[in-house]
Amino acid sequence: MKSFKYADEKIGEKEIMIAVPSMVIGVGILSLPKDLASATVASDGWIPLIIGGFIAILMTWLVAKFASGFVNQTFLTYASSIATRPVAIVLTFLFAILFLLITAFQVRQIADISKQYLFDRTPLEIISLAFLLVVMYAVSGSRAGLFRLNVMFLPIILFIALSVFVFNLGWFDYEKLFPVFKTGFNDYVKGLNTSVTSYLGFSILWFYIALVDKPKKAPKMAAIGMCIPVVLYIMLYLLCIGVFGREVTANLLYPTVELAKVVDIPGGFFERFESIFFVIWIMAIFNTASMALDVAVLAINSIFSKMLKAKILFILVPIVYIISMLPQEIVEVNSFGAAMSISMLFYSVLVFALLFVIAKVRGVKRDE
Amino acid sequence: MNKRLLIHLCWMMLLLSGCWDENDIEERGFVIGTAIDLVEDQQANDNPTLKMTNQFVVPAGIGLPTGAGSEKKAFTNLSKTGESLFEIIRLMSTAVGRAPYYEHLKLIVVSEEVARQPDLFAGIMDLFIRDQEMRREMRVVISEDKAQKILEIEPETENLPVMYITNVMENTTKLAGLIDPARIGEIHEHLLEPQSYVIPRVFSSDDKIIFNGGAVFHGESNRLVGTINLEEAAGLNLIKNKIEGGYFKIEVDNKLMVYELKRVKSNIEINANDPEDINIEITIDAEGNIGEMFGQKSLLDKAYLSKIERKVSERIEQVVNNTIKKAQEDLKLDFFGFSEILKRKHYEIWNEVKENWDEGDNIFANSTVKVKADAIIRTTGATDRVKDQGSE
Amino acid sequence: MVSRYFFRKKEKQERKNKEENFSVKKIAKKIENNLDNLKEILDKPNDLVIREFTIKGSKHKCAIAYIDGMVDSNLVHNNIMKNVQLITGRDSLPKAESELFEEIYQEILSVTSIKKGSTLDDISYAILSGSTIFYLDGIDKVIIMDTKGWKTRSIEEPITETVIRGSREGFIENIRTNMVMIRRYIRDPNLRFKTYQVGRRSKKDLVLSYIDGIVNPDIVKEVNRRLETIDMDDAPESGYIEEWIEDSFLSPFPQVLNTERPDKVAAALLEGKVAILLDGTPFVLIAPATLGNTLQSPEDYYERWTIGTLLRALRYLAAFIAMFLPALYIALVSFHPGMIPSDLAFSIAASREGVPFPAYVEALLMALTMELLREAGTRLPTPIGQTIGIVGGLVIGEAAVSAGLVSPAMVIVVALNAIASFSLPSYSVAISFRILLFGMMLAAATFGLYGIILSYIMLNVHLVNLKSFGVPYTTPFAPNFLSDWKDLILRAPITTIKRRPTYMQPLDKKSLNKGDS
Fold first, then answer.
1. Contact flag A145-C339 (C-beta cutoff 8 Å)
2. How far apart are the CA of C271 and the nearest CA of chain A, in angstroms?
3. CA–CA gap between residue C288 and residue C235 (Å, rounded)
4. How many folded domains does chain B comprise?
């Protein structure tokens, strides 16, 4: 049946460039300005954002470069050739768990934010379940389809973000950005922590690079893709500060959505732009959640290669649902998210360092 | 196979889930304005008792193009009392057939009495900021007497009093002394920051709404501590660069003349080298034209024109100085946002003085404020002079 | 899926073998037997004409047989009967039957399309497709002459796809004429027509058409493979073929386009697609199809590009309205009235005052009514159909509003929706969109905007997994081919569209300026 070459099981480098920002942009940015603003003075949050962005781009490039050295090998394969197979299985399994946690977090967040901006009485459980089922439907389809979804949705997401930006320029007061560079060093570090964890998403490259048909170009493309969220985050952050001022930004639960609340479309059919903004943003969250779940399925599938994808999915989805329903209130959700992203960050760095050092020591050949 | 099962699952979910939030538009009671008053006869309670008046839209009264139901009034006001607004809102739901719905709330009127109570204003605003049904564009005004009266205005041009009031508010460009209506979003900023601020003040008379200067709120305690009149408000607007239009009456050679403001640009320089003696320099560049004149002299005369310009400048300086005097001597409060500029431009000094800026040592009251205005006349209107009594 | 096709093919092969064993009946030498056999197979129908005669000056018995009405009788009279009967003009007649037969075949019969047949199967198929059979006594062969000449409808303007500017020609039921029309558009020697026979009983002609050197051979191979699996009694319309060869029968989206317009087919062929013509229907299938194709009309290219672009963009808007408008109305009115501007919200509330149903029931009612009206309008003869439209649209709408059953706003929404969905260029696409509309309304009635966006995401998931003959349905959106965007939502000036669609992966990539690099 493979009659017409559309490289369905392979990914082009263009798709990788789109997949990275699609993975990064999710619920994080909705509350990011709040966390940053509470750590820094006035608009100084952009410095940790830019440094964090630089670190993220570098990490993206490194991971992609490292993984692309093993052409068409899954993470499990090359990890076991570097370390041993048992170690590789443990590493893969931990990745799968972390990605499941990411999915669960997104699923939970979408319900929480929907309750803020769209619903009043609809139960949290139902909102989450509906979303999770759609994610499951997407993951059950072809992997190429998932990347095509990214390609379809990312422009819409960037467009809506841009329109929030444009419509808000009228409220933008550049004086609110001052004074600059008044934050203490410790606060910068605190802000950096927030900003780096918000750029998490390059970890998908551990798994997806194996599917790229021309891995040579992939590191560069992935790094370019990473630039999109960096620029977007800085823009939105400065906009938040310029419109609300630092104090208010630090006190709003989801400053980025509130930005949309300020928007007043001239002669518009719609009022309450924030609902539209959030509804569109669901696509971004969907992209993140579906890719995270897909990577988890991919990871588990590489360990239990005999199991059907659908079967794995049917086992994983209830687990994700249960995890997402565990936190009781917003504080717990937030600390769950924070713990998850920090462990993801450290784990990614750890795996990279581990594999890189062992590969160098043992002299494992990478086919350049 | 699995995919098909999934699709079915999704559909079944949709069918089973029912419609929790489904509530048809005509079954909602649209609240478009709310007024908050203090109840007179305080019981032996620590917390003040509040009275909340909501203005509900009666859609049938708005009338269709067919003219059906036009005899009905388009709105109805409903009041309830209680200690917390949330409680009142819930009580109110039991009293009306339609569940109150606040997403179209446009105006919050708070009476001066309420605003003067310690900590009450912030507490009231909290609900309107916290609740997701509310918009950030809601306007807040302070009413001189009972706030409820504002909602009881029966305007001739509009069906709904609140719509009338918000429309009037849009006309702030016509008068220099009208303070920009405060959006709840701005109030949120004010509440979070320690600066003092000004909210427009209104009263009603003859089914009309009259804007009368502003109410000055103390930044730390968020309570109303004083009021400014229209002219002082004009001074405030001039300093804060918020004038989009307006006029000044001046007398040149004993003849009345009206200078219409077109563009004003103010610039504030703070010289804070010595925290004990802070110099604030305000330069105001105004641009405008002659709106009306009662004299006969030709305006094309350069000397005469610069004389008028000088007069206008003097007048502007006088207005601004009055306002500053009021702030420094009467209220001893910086409601101009000087401290914010200090923070932005001289962060270290601001850190030193912020405790004692407009309280404690009150550095603000003791600082020197210099005002310099420079007005120019761009055009003289379509004509040089209307009356000509021959050459002088 | 693959295995299903595979098995079907195998089965068919077996069955074919069986049939052959059964029906390969050779022709007898005696003419009487042959004629009896023929009559027996067809059960002596009264439109079967058998003319027995002898050649003048000889004792050779001959016969011609054809079905009345299916042949061109002038041709039979002048070029066959006359020639054979007046054979005596010649000096000598060969005595041997086989020589005579050969001479008649070579020299006497002046029909261009002529062949010999030796089985009864050949004869019955030929005679039923309008050929004339010539029998000669003592020979176990017959001569089959193509004398098709039945009445066909004349070429008319296609009713389903009218354009303001452009060719007025539409396909008709005769496949030969249709092929001629395509040939007239593309006089390229590489234009290929590959003939199949479909229908175990009906044995209809089906023609696969493509341009060699443009089309990607993999597509032809795939279409060919699928066409060969077709095994059914009859294919009365190309819709049967479409359902048989499409990728996913669960999808509401058409994965094969159909058209009545030769110019559209020609353009598709030049883009590297294939066309499937079936005898007996004016609707020609075009494959592969993409989402973008469903919203294209030939007229986009016939008007100047600014107009074409406007029309295109308008159609995308129409597609959006056709799918989402009532759902959005339900979501806004029942779930998020805060999103409607205050004044509008109050007047909608006023107009809904006294309407007994919730918005989604109201919308469902009106949309169903709309469907009924559409269906009634299509089935009735044109003048009555129009009357129904007026009665339904105006009278029922007006009466329903004044009776307080529905609100005026709802009537506007449903009417706008209907207009939008029928401004889509193809009827089958429009209907597909209307099916989805009901799903959207249901989702909106349950979850409001959240339901709409989830359904939209689900729809996209379905679309990206959908393929039409190996071509992803959502291309050139995703997989993204930026150069194809010139002819997608916009229609760039023709001089700038230098390449055939990349997503079709044609062999000959350039359509303009072939000379330069």
1. no
2. 16
3. 20
4. 1
**Residue B231 falls within a domain, yes or no?**
no
- Residue B283: name the closest of B182, B373, B196, B209 by CA: B373
Are A117 and C339 spatial neighbours (Cβ–Cβ below 8 Å)?
Answer: no
| Secondary structure tally for chain C: helices H, strands E | 19, 12
Is the residue at B367 inside a domain? yes
Q: What is the mean pLDDT of chain B?
A: 80
Chains that touch B (3 or more CB pairs under 8 A): A, C
| C181/A144 Cα distance (integer angstroms) | 40
Per-residue model confidence (pLDDT) at position A318: 93
Of A135, A128, A163, A129, the closest CA to residue A149 belongs to A135
Asked if residues C128 and C66 have their Cβ atoms less than 8 Å apart, the reply is no
Interface list for C 341-370 with B (CB within 8 A): 342, 345-353, 355, 358-360
Domain boundaries, chain C: 2-146, 175-289, 301-472
User: C346 and B24 in contact by Cβ < 8 A?
Assistant: no
Q: Which two tokens stand for residue A53?
A: 């962005």
- Does residue B278 fall inside a structural domain? yes
User: What CA–CA distance (Å, rounded) separates A127 from A105?
Assistant: 14
Give C347's contacts in chain B (Cβ within 8 Å): 59, 62, 64
Assess contact for C103 and C157: CB atoms under 8 A. no
Distance CA A240, CA A90 (A): 42
Q: Read off the pLDDT of each residue in A178-206 and give the average, rounded to a whole number.
A: 84
Can you give the pLDDT at residue B12? 59
Any domain includes B155:
no
* Residues 231 through 260 of chain A touching chain B, CB cutoff 8 Å: 244-245, 247-248, 251, 258
Q: Give the pLDDT score at B390.
A: 46
* Nearest in space to C471 (alpha carbons), one of C247, C257, C264, C296: C247
pLDDT band, very low/low/confident/very high, at B371 (cuts 50, 70, 90): confident
- C-alpha span between B254 and B295 (Å, rounded): 9
Helix H, strand E, coil C: the string for C450-469 is HHHHHHHHHHHHHHHHCEEC
Which CATH number fits the domain that encloses residue B314?
A: 3.30.300.210
**Which portions of chain C are predicted below pLDDT 50?**
1-3, 5-6, 22, 514-517
Quote the distance between the C-alpha of residue B196 and its chain's center.
Answer: 14
- Residue C98 C-alpha from the chain's centroid: 46
Residue-wise pLDDT tens digits, C392-410:
777 888 888 888 888 888 8
Residue to substitute from A148, A159, A213, A272, interface C, most C β-carbons within 10 A: A148
Q: Which domains does chain A have, with CATH numbers?
A: 13-359 (1.20.1740.10)
pLDDT in tens, B149-160: 888 888 877 788
Q: Domain residues for B270?
A: 240-392
Residue B64 has pLDDT above 60, yes or no: no
Distance CA B43, CA A100 (A): 57
The secondary structure of C294-351 as a DSSP string is: GG--THHHHS-HHHHHHHHHHHHHHHHHHHHHHHHHHIIIII-GGGS-HHHHHHHHHH
Alpha-carbon distance A137 to A294, whole Å? 11
